[in-house]
């Protein structure tokens, strides 16, 4: 589909649905539910889809539409406050930690039992339902099994299998699709004012991940980091190169995480210090120190997640590069994602075999899985770099 054709189709989505690129079928389903069509509405939804497909945006848009008397106009107070998280009857939960614990879930369950204060429903959006702990899932299950009359749960996860079976079996499943490159490019042009050539590049290399495409289109540093990651395979000629590449990658991801969290950390510390009355006669040193220690622990956990997310992005980029290598080796008609690095891709393809390339892709996917199970990042990346060298 051409960019112009996509623009025309995308224009049919308006109001709170406008940013849901290429999700026309899913939006139609949600609109029917909002309109109250028979069997269309459910008290619990599970929104799934690949990274960047817009799971969180779809959940927020649905929450807003459920409160809006016009079904999601996008301009009324209900829509604006629901989308921003300021609506009293819409609770948005997105963790910056590695998991969502049982106490946080219990707070949500208590809120779910309340009647709406101003809106038409009590809506709870859990953007990272795949991060709910086992005990948290047990607490959530009862609320979903026996929901309050006007309560709607909207859970988001990459796949249905990422949510425990007892919960997903009680939810209506909505699966989003990977947007087309042309649809993502058109959104960057129309919404963010990105130059068309840069928008096409960002959409292509992000492979349908809307958020990643936006970052690459707007941040030259992000484009530079990505380019350096993609040069790694061409520089692996021995064990020393592998260990150095791993250390450099993990360090760069740590620095990226620190840069992303430093300002927020400082604001949180200043806010807590003020709330605890540091420097005043009424301050309680022991309680204050304990509270600051809890905050530091939370900030360390957040930085750890940011670092692992950054490493995961790098591994995803390398996987895309090796898929290009495999396409070259198998003479596939599929266009290269990283066409700017065609010379490197040709060289990598010539000095290896399709079987070895598949082993390398498996190693990258295995590293992503290992990071999810709390393997030390440096050890996981070192093993992966050695696998990339050996094939």
Describe the model.
The structure is a single chain. This protein is α/β, with parallel strands linked by helices and 391 residues long. The chain has three domains: 3-175, Rossmann fold (3-Layer(aba) Sandwich), CATH 3.40.50; 181-218; 235-390, no CATH class. The chain contains 16 helices and five strands. It has helices spanning 3-10, 24-35, 55-67, 77-84, 102-112, 134-145, 165-168, 181-192, 196-206, 210-218, 220-230, 239-276, 285-329, 342-350, 354-372, 377-390, and strands spanning 44-48, 90-93, 122-126, 151-157, 172-175. Strands 2-3-4-1-5 form a five-stranded parallel β-sheet, sandwiched between helices. Strand 2, helix 5 and strand 3 (122-126) form a beta-alpha-beta unit. The chain is globular.
Please give a quick description of this structure.
By secondary structure, the chain is α/β, with parallel strands linked by helices.
